[in-house]
Amino acid sequence: MVGREFFVSDNVAVCLELIDDGEGIAQATEILRAGGTVALPSETVYGLGADATNASAVSKIFTAKNRPASHPLIIHIENIESARSFSNDFNVVAETLGSSFWPGPLTLLVKRSSKVIDEITGGRETVALRVPAHETFQKVLHAFSQVGSGAIAAPSANKYGSVSPTTAQHVLSDMGNHIDAVLDGGNCVVGIESTIVDCTVNPPAILRQGAITLELVNSALRHTGAVATEEFTGESRAPGMKLSHYAPLASVKLFENKVALSSYEEHCALNKISFVTILGSEDREIYARELYSMLRDADASQPTEILVLLPEPSDIGVAIRDRLFKAAAPR
Predict the structure, then answer these.
(1) What CATH number has the domain bearing residue 166?
(2) Cβ atoms of residues 212 and 105 within 8 Å
């Protein structure tokens, strides 16, 4: 097992590349227990994990990402029973949605309990909780619950505001000199961040779109009488609510149809503007899974502009459009 001296220093020199096996999971768990940072695979994107109950460990997330301290983090736990202990009001909406979609790509914003430290919430009285579905993340959570808090804070493992990582290599290229380890669990199968639902308001509000759509949320809530709405502006009380986010270095231009896209390509060629075009996939689940890799690959060629054909605004296409509009927003 890796010695503790490799990861307790505040000045990380080497990022360990851990294999997704029993030894790798044990190493990741030991690093977390000792107050270090480990990038972990989830079904959504890779998360930069640290012990959610250790203020010093959590501070390393903010430093590595250059993330504003006021921007809240999501706590990942093994199951809904663990989630309840981090809230003093895990209400019927939270119970219903957690029971319906966990483990999975859904985050619930609930009233925090005394177990939640201020560094997680930015001083707010709410906390964001998620039970991830990725088998490797679940194994780490289970192992960490045996030797530590069993709660892992894990925002996306990239610099704040930039394109999220969906492979271990993405993490290494972004964060290799700033974190203790990355556990390689393969490519993320969903590819975009979790849906966030605020369960503390009436009606419940989706604060960030994801694979769990408004329609799915309201179908699950039908027997409760609650009807969720969407709220994407106002105070940034949950991750992903900033106007500009998920952004590559190049400017991003968005197009609703191929005719408009083709016309703009001609404009770029005529004016000698370097560009890369992303058409995505007609299968919106594949589009979501490959979105961040496509943005990263396009950016690697250092174009002036990245031109993107938007998907249809249905099912997960709504969330893809949200990410792209934020990637294209003024910075």
Answers:
(1) 3.90.870.10
(2) yes
Q: How does pLDDT run across 121-152, given as a tens digit for each residue?
A: 999 999 999 999 999 999 999 999 999 999 99
Backbone phi, psi, residue 247, to 5°: -100, 130
Residue of 37, 201, 209, 187 whose CA lies nearest to 107 = 209
Task: Give per-residue pLDDT as tens, 164-216.
Answer: 999 999 999 999 999 999 999 999 999 999 999 999 999 999 999 999 999 99
Do 218 and 257 share a domain, yes or no?
no
Domain with 206, as residue range(s), is 4-230
In a domain, 92, yes or no: yes
Count of domains for the chain: 2
Place of tokens 């609650």: 226
Contact 181, 39 (CB under 8 A): yes
Task: Kindly give the interhelix angle for 135-147 and 22-33, rounded to the nearest 10 degrees.
Answer: 50
Give the global pTM.
0.94
Residues 314 and 196 placed together within one structural domain of the fold: no
3-class DSSP state for residue 5? helix
